[in-house]
Amino acid sequence: MTRTKTIILSFLSVVLIASCSTVTYDKIYPTLKDGKYDSEFPYKSSSEDLEYISSTIFRINSTGFYKSYIFDRTDRLTLDSIRNGAIDEMAIEENYFDQSSAGTGTVVFARGGKVA
To answer: DSSP letter string over the chain?
Structure first.
């Protein structure tokens, strides 16, 4: 009878171990493995990390100011004559305009007053 109990206990142990499975993020959150850029579900507080990341993102605004010239076609000016002459005197009209743009930039390196 002891041998029978050992066999039954061994069989039940094998069945118990085989029936247990590990739970992975692949089964719980299959959308995380979609090949796209995302972050995983936070398993710890991420406030400190998000604050650091946010401090490296900057809004960049730039404005360029331009001066344009309009020349009289009858003067038959060439590029060389414009480069070598007084543009302000040759132009029949001057215009000023600007072009603004904005975007964001991320600091990926900073050391010794140099920023990338």
So the answer is: -HHHHHHHHHHHHHHHHHH-----HHHH-GGGGSSS--PPPPSS--HHHHHHHHHTEEEEEEEEEEEEEE--GGG---HHHHHHS-HHHH-SEEEEEEEEEEEEEE---EETTEE-
User: Is pTM beyond 0.85 here?
Assistant: no
Q: How many residues does this entry show for the chain?
A: 116
Q: Which residue has the tokens 């309009």?
A: 70
Q: What is the pLDDT of residues 42-95, one digit of tens each?
A: 656 677 877 887 888 888 888 999 999 898 888 888 888 888 888 878 889 999
Judged on CB neighbours under 10 Å (0-12, 13-18, 19+), 90 is middle
d(CA 16, CA 21): 10
